[in-house]
Design a protein that fits this description.
- The protein is built from two helices and no strands.
- The protein is mainly α.
- The protein starts with a helix and ends with a helix.
- 84% of the residues lie in helices and 0% in strands.
- The relative contact order is 0.08.
Length: 51
């Protein structure tokens, strides 16, 4: 487990120290998913208009 490898006595210490990193990563992934969905929808709309 990561907490023992980092020398933390419990998982709660690890989570307290690194939870901000996880929330930043979650936002980054969500933004990338949103962008991918938006680009796909935009591409589909453009194809429909050109037909």
């Amino acid at each position: 487990m990561a907490s023992s490898r980092l020398g933390h006595s419990s998982i709660s210490i690890t989570l307290d120290l690194y939870s901000h990193v996880l929330s930043d990563m979650q936002k980054e992934v969500a933004d990338k998913i949103d962008m991918g969905i938006f680009q796909k929808l935009e591409h589909n709309n453009h194809q429909q208009l050109s037909q």
